[in-house]
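Protocol check, entry for the methods section draft. Step 1: assemble the input record (protein sequence plus ligand SMILES). Step 2: submit for complex structure prediction. Step 3: store the structure tokens unaltered in the notebook. Ligand used here: magnesium ion. Step 1 record:
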Amino acid sequence: MKSLFQAGRPVVGEKLIGREQAIKQIISFLVGGQSVVLMAPRRFGKTSILLEVLNRVKSQGLFTAYIDIFATPTKRILAEQITESVLANRKLDKVFANFRKSISSILKQVEFKQAIEDFEFILDFAETKQDESVLLSESIDFIERFSIKYNQQIVCGFDEFGDIEKLDGLEIVKLFRSKLQLQQNTSFLFSGSHESVMNQIFITSKSPFYRFARIINVKEISPDIFKNYIKNEFSRIDVKINPESLNSIIEFTGGQPYYTQLVCRQLEYLVTTNFAKSSSGISKQISINDVNTAIEEAFWAEINYIEKLWEELSVSREQTQVLISIVRGVDSVYRSLNLNQVNVSRALRNLKLKGVIKREGKNYRLIDPMLKYFICRDILKLDKAECIKSG
Ligand SMILES: Nc1ncnc2c1ncn2[C@@H]1O[C@H](COP(=O)(O)OP(=O)(O)OP(=O)(O)O)[C@@H](O)[C@H]1O
Ligand SMILES: [Mg+2]
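Step 3, stored output:
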């Protein structure tokens, strides 16, 4: 049976919760011609929002395009993706994909011929030696030209846009900027995880896209919405979960969508296998112990990711020391460490820019609850149940 909880793949439709207000706002900006940037640390649900927004504007009759920059290692592939996803609005994406392999057969297809009539550059995709910068430049123009040809506004989603710099440094960002600002019929929805990179592209006054788009910070999902959702999902399989257990899940994850789903999925697995084993007639009720076991299972499912993250952070001893003292819950990171103030400030700033920590009032907090659990459990070697509680 398919799991009730999805952890990993983006969620849309009924499975997407707690984002209604944001989605409505984003759509009204986009339809009004204003571009939008979604910013959030990893696994906060950016792609889900982006896809849902595109689905909804598409059902309103607008054209859409979705391009995941993370999955485009070269400028040529990026150009192909842009062109293909724009052509998909006239169901010509498959023909285009085949066309790149075999030009002659496809050109016989009347519809495709008509569609590309005004866009001769598409023929260049069959030419392996074609300059990829030219293809990219043409494909960016194509977004708007296509929408004008069909007299239809288009919303174009660029997922993980911060990754664009990997293709050609800042040059390519500037190329996008110079072209996008001229497009009248197109609105853009960008998303990105790396705060420092996104700041450089969209926020600081020297950034190429300064004031180009409205910034929306994606936060954790509201605890009440998540708790209701979890309760309802479990009730589908006749499993009850009491308020105490629900609280302990949300206290641990803080409403971070991915980990909340992951813990619930482990919990579902645990209770369905346990209930299957136990004799019938017992009430199907989730206990705090079940929640603790599920969190531990979720931790093991994530261990590679967390260890890699820790390793990356360990390049700077100041960073790891600062993180440890935040997890310890000390009053002042500055006073607690045997480091000079400048070094502590630098580590705090870097950790903030990387999206690892966040300031809350006078204190700092780790954004990733599983990293926090890892530090508490494996570095400080504190009691597991205590580490879960202090989530
Ligand atoms: N609104 C939501 N409602 C329910 N679950 C969600 C929601 N948003 C995200 N999730 C959960 O988080 C997971 C990751 O979501 P998504 O891929 O959209 O995030 P992301 O920010 O794009 O992640 P990444 O940084 O890996 O690209 C989903 O598989 C799902 O489990
Ligand atoms: Mg994503």
